[in-house]
Write a structure and sequence with these properties.
Elements (H helix, E strand, L loop, with lengths): L4 H8 L4 E7 L2 E3 L4 E2 L5 E7 L5 E7 L8 E5 L4 E6 L4 E9 L5 E3 L3 E6 L1
């Protein structure tokens, strides 16, 4: 499919990457974050002294259908977003046994 000049301009104006900072279990920014579909990256930076599980799920699906990724205390995780991807996410507290003991704040969608 041919791209219009407007579509090309919109895609080229999107950033290649964006950072979502986690402080006190709160994502910032919390709303929509969009990056370029050409290799766009979302970085999750944890500024807390505890690790979290980031749960990602497709927009419009149940949260329980998602996957969990460990976000280490003081660490960073990067997620690649391919063309037409759109995910919601939540920041969850992990128990000593690795289970999620408290659902945290959500955000998103993250998309391209």
């Amino acid at each position: 499919m041919a791209m219009t000049g407007t579509t090309k301009a919109e895609e080229s104006s999107l950033p290649e990457s964006a950072t979502i900072t986690i402080r006190e279990r709160q994502p910032d920014p919390r709303g929509e974050v969009e990056v370029t579909p050409k290799g766009g990256r979302i970085h999750f930076q944890n500024e807390d002294a505890v690790e979290y599980a980031l749960r990602f799920w497709k927009t419009g699906m149940e949260q329980t259908s998602g996957i969990d990724i460990l976000l280490p205390a003081g660490g960073c995780v990067t997620v690649a977003i391919k063309k037409d991807d759109e995910f919601a996410y939540s920041v969850n507290v992990i128990g000593a046994d690795g289970s999620i003991v408290a659902n945290g704040r959500g955000g998103g969608p993250i998309k391209n």
